[in-house]
Amino acid sequence: MPELRKDPILGRWIIIAKERSKRPTDFVVESPVTKGGFCPLCPGNEKTTPDEVLVYGRPPGMGGNSPGWKLRVVPNKYPALVIEGNIDKQGEGLYDRMNGIGAHEVVVESPNHDDRFAFLPHEQMILTFRAFRDRIRDLSRDDRFLYVMVFKNYGKAAGASLEHSHSQLVALPVLPRMIVSELEGSLSYYKYKDRCIFCDIIRQEIQQDIRLVCENDKFVTLAPFAPRTPFEMWIMPRNHNSSYTDQDDESMAALTNIFSETLRRLDACIPGVPYNFVLHTQPLRSQPLDHYHWHFEIVPKLTSIAGFEWGTGFYINPMPPEDTCRYLREVKL
After folding, report:
1. 280 catalytic, yes or no?
2. Which pLDDT score is estimated for 21?
3. Fewer Cβ close by (within 10 Å): the C or N end of the chain?
C-alpha cells in the first residue's frame, strides 16, 4: 500500500509509492554524450572568462587569469543577477519589485576537463569546499546580499550546461523560500522542545541505523525520512553548527571524505546518475542559531515533476529511503 510521510522540518508530505518500487538497475540513465570542442573553463582559455575572483594553486610569479591553477572562481558570463547597481525596492499596488542585484559565480573544480567531481583526488576536492567557504565569507561583506546559494548540477538532466566539472554560487538580496521555511520549521520545533530538530534527527538515525548511509567522526550521510526522490541524501555535521563558514581545515577534510564516499556509493548504485546538490546554511551576517543546522542536500534526477506534483506540492517517490539506504550501504567501493 502507498504511504504518506511528513517531513518533520517543513511539514511537506511525500507519497512513497511502494507498488512502483524499483531496484537501482531499473532506473534508465542516459549515457552522457561528449560534445568536445572549445571549453572556456580549460587551462589556456582563461581570457575567455571574466576575471577570476579567487584562485588556488597557481605558482608564484604567474600573472592572474593564466594557466597553472588548481581551482578558479570566476563570475558567470551570463549571470542570473548582476553585481552593479542599487536594489531600489519599489511597490506597485500590492506587487513588489526590485532590481536584479546579486552575484553569480562559477567554481571551476579542476583544470582537467574530463574529471568527475565524485572521483576527484582528496586534495583537489577539498579546494572546492574551501572555495565555497571563502567566497561566502567575502560576499557576506556586501550588505546588499542576504544569502549565498551554493549548488552543483551534474548531468544534462540536472541542468548542467558545460561538461567541465564546475559548481556555482549565487548571492541573493532576499532569503530563498526554502531556507525561510526551514528556519521557521526548525524554530517552531526548538520553541516546543528546546532542542535542534536536525540534531534530534541525527541522534535518532544513528540509533535506528536504517537510514544511515555512512559516517565519520565529524559528519553523517542520511537518507531523509520523507525523500523527494529515490536516493536523496543529506550530509550533516554531527555536532551542532548553523554556519558553513565556521568550518576549519580539519572539518573540511572530513567533509571531503564523506562527500566523496557518498557520491561514489551513489554512482556505484546507478552509474552516471545526474544529480543536484545544494548547501543549506544560515543567512549572511546572522548570529549562531541554536535551532538551525547547516547541511548539504543531494537530490538525484530520477523522477519527473508533472501535474499532480505541481498541483499539490507533493512528491511521489517509488522507493522507500530504507531500501535506497540498504543498496547504498551494500555496494562495494
Report:
1. no
2. 64
3. N
Q: How many structural domains are present in the chain?
A: 1
pLDDT in tens, 151-166: 999 998 888 889 999 9
Q: What is the number of residues in the chain?
A: 333
Q: Give how far Cα 277 sits from Cα of 104, 117, 155, 168, 203, Å.
A: 17, 12, 12, 11, 23
More confident residue, 29 or 266: 266
Question: Which of 164, 166, 291, 293 is flagged as catalytic?
Answer: 166
Q: Residue 177 burial by CB count (10 A; 0-12/13-18/19+): exposed, middle or buried? A: exposed
Q: In the beta sheet, which residues pair with residue 14?
A: 5, 315
- The distance in angstroms from the start CA to the end CA of the chain is 34
Query: What would the pLDDT profile of 53-98 be if each residue is shown by its tens digit?
Result: 999 999 887 888 899 999 999 999 999 999 998 998 999 999 999 9
Query: CATH code at 248?
Result: 3.30.428.10
Q: Structural domain of residue 42, as residue ranges? A: 3-330
C-alpha–C-alpha distance, residues 149 and 248, integer Å: 20
